[in-house]
Amino acid sequence: QVQLVESGGGLVQAGGSLKLSCAASVSINSFTSVGWYRQAPGKQRELVTTRALSGTITYKDSVKGRFTFSRDNAKNTVYLQMNSLKPEDTAVYYCRAVKSGLTYWGQGTQVTISS
């Protein structure tokens, strides 16, 4: 069983920054893929960024140049550095990992950007 625990959400003004963390209960090197999704009120959950086993990292177009995925293997933790935040980035952010064909989600962390 894989557990993912997000933290780091909060309320910031537009133009500000936040760094989200996702701590995994297993080695993040065992994941086929790992990344971040978000869901705004009334909208479908969408991909923000993901890192494949190959090391390739992809980003949603609207966050390119502002958000950065990173990881710390020793801490089994992945991060999402979010800069130049906009009100439209407001959402619940979820960590997602795939391991051995199964998909795991964290509980989510709320990010609210005020204009």
What is the SS-derived class? mainly beta
Largest sheet: 7 strands, mixed
**Low-pLDDT residue intervals, each spanning 5 or more residues:** none
Helix and strand sequence: EEEEEEEEEEE
Give the % helix.
under 10%
Give the helix tally.
0
Number of strands: 11
Mean pLDDT: 97
Give the overall form.
globular
Write up this protein.
The chain contains no helices and eleven strands. With 115 residues, it is mainly β.
For this entry, give a set of tags.
single chain, 115 residues, mainly beta, seven-stranded mixed beta sheet, four-stranded antiparallel beta sheet, 0% helix
Secondary-structure blueprint of this entry?
Elements: E1 4-7, E2 10-13, E3 18-24, E4 33-39, E5 46-52, E6 57-59, E7 67-72, E8 77-82, E9 91-99, E10 102-105, E11 109-114
Parallel strand pairs: 2-11
Antiparallel strand pairs: 1-3, 3-8, 4-5, 4-9, 5-6, 7-8, 9-10, 9-11
